[in-house]
Predict the structure.
Amino acid sequence: MYAKVVLVKDTDLKREDRTREFYTRLLDCLRETNLHSQIQVVRVADIGIYDRGLVIKILPDKVTYANVQDTDIKRIVEALSEEKVVEELVFKPKAKQYRLVLRNCGKIDPENIDEYISNGGYLSLKKAVTELGQQKLIDEIKASGIRGRGGAGYPTWMKWNFAREVASDQKFVICNADEGDPGAYMDRSVLEGDPHSVIEGLAIAAFATGASKGYFYVRAEYPLAVERIEKAISQAYDYGLLGKDILGSSFSLDIEIRLGAGAFVCGEETALISSIEGKRGTPHPRPPYPSVKGLWGKPTVINNVETLANIPVIVSRGGKWFAQIGTQTSKGTKVFAVTGKVKNSGLVEIAMGASLRDIVIDICGGTLSGKPIKAVQTGGPSGGVIPERLLDTPVDYENLQKLGSIMGSGGMIVIDDEDCMVDIPKFYLGFCVEESCGKCAPCRIGGFQMLNYLKKISEGKGKPEDLGQLRRIAQAMQKASLCGLGQTASNPVLSTLKYFEEEYNEHILNKRCPAGKCSSLVTYSIISEKCKRCGLCFNNCPVKAISGDKEQGYSIAQDKCVKCGQCFEVCKFKAIDKK
Amino acid sequence: MEHKQLNPELINLVQQWKGKEGNLIMILHEIQNHHGYVPRELSLELSKMLDVPLARIYEVITFYNFFKLNPPGKHRIALCMGTACYLRGAGVILEEVKNILGIREGQTTKDGLFHLDVVRCLGCCGLAPVMMIDNKVYGKVKKSEIADILSKYIKEE
């Protein structure tokens, strides 16, 4: 066994990888000082830090040095032998992640309730039931300032309080785990990694509102999440944390799982209620709000997975403590699923108020290709794009809304200059049109018509007046749609029009797609200076649009070309020009 | 086609759920788990057992993407078209699968071996583009790998 492990990685991508040489030098130095039998040096493929020169991480000390030079090796080894730290080389990350919701994910065994309990689990439920009581509990949640993490950002304590104040023989609590936003998987990770924290949160919500029955509404597409919650619920029953007279009090709660069946609109509260009732998941006009009249006409509180996972922490550490984290209006942390053209895709949890740049560049390492970021899309199909120049905006509910996007459930997609700003809203709108339940006309017809305009533009058949029409329909949808899906479906279009109108104009006026994404507007041609006349494109063209021979060289007949891109892909000399 | 009947297990299940409110979707889930789709005969029987009009059952089945009315192929290919996969080239992958199998999304090959579905996000965006065959997830799929992956399933026959 080695006493320490040193991880080494050259994070400078622009230069040749120096990891290997550095590794040898470090080993040599360790050998000279006779430490090589106690310290293991490992070259790693990724160390989670980018563009900081040679980076070394020392475990279990958790010391990280960045921009290490060859001349530093000696003092690092000396420090290692004396159990000291070379202060001036220590890497200080600008933006730090803050694991609150994901506190247990990956650290405990999600299928073992004992591990959750030994990490302080279910103590908050006990505190709520035996010490605080309903009023004090809701006061704590109010003091914490937590707002719903599902998208709209409604204050959680108000939902609870409304439901509590309504007199009713039966009340319900529902955990909304119907994560339908494509490109987001925060809820899935919490359900699979720490199901008990959500159950505890739901139980506390039930106690606060006086509900005796709870439901988990989970996507059927997440079989592992369903399995883990099922297991966790039955363990909680065994320990007397669910069921009758919980923890010796008079509070009783039964929890059941209901499966979703693949309908994005069911993430909307009233549609979700219809679905649990076993009907088509179509929304209803609000008010009455579910807090007053929800499931089977009874007061119902619906909270998102991430919101509920926050509740045990708030109860155990106090609302005041929680309110210190974040910004004036948005408290606590937020988990984002960062994907798209990003180097280090994955879940990121940050305190509210961190900038988008902190997230996508400092934590996630910027784009995969090293090209500049064009924009960041937040909030999924209901959100909008934020251009690169506004990436310094601190993340909170209000700021994102001001920019024409939304916080949403936490999807964050990084877009680089190979992505077309007409194609992306077309993709999202296509999603909303498919998922529109069809109950109200603005969403059903408006979405379809907008999609037609976008298709026309991307095929080069757009007219300048189409942009005005798009804006008009978008406004009508925002104002007249029945539920959140229709009201926000136009956000991707409006935000791209706001920040990237010139790109729309390129498509309409010059019949050109600057990103080369809209296939009908792309032309392929052979750059004769680069062409080695190997004939690969000629052999691979499915429609025989390429003519010529090895002597004369080749050319593409534009009238025959179907723009499949096959020649572009097979060419080994980058001699095919795509415009 | 053979006449599908509710087996005792399912009758039991329906009895279990019968008294509960909002049971329909959960029962349909169980039927589909068992048969791979919801056969019309079973919907008819269910309608009698639960005393719910057939139209109500079909209204629900057709609303949700998850429920199927036709028998699926032996292997279900679920190709993800979530945002992350789309940006990382899922469109190209889809075209390739369609070319190789000669079917469109939502269809089953003539030999009944593959059924192709396009789905919205399998929840593993970090691996984009993602394709799932039965319960096996293929991440970071390249166009050139598709033929290899599919041939594994064909060889098994």
About this structure: The CA atoms of residues 319 and 567 of chain A lie 61 Å apart. Chain A has a mean pLDDT of 90.
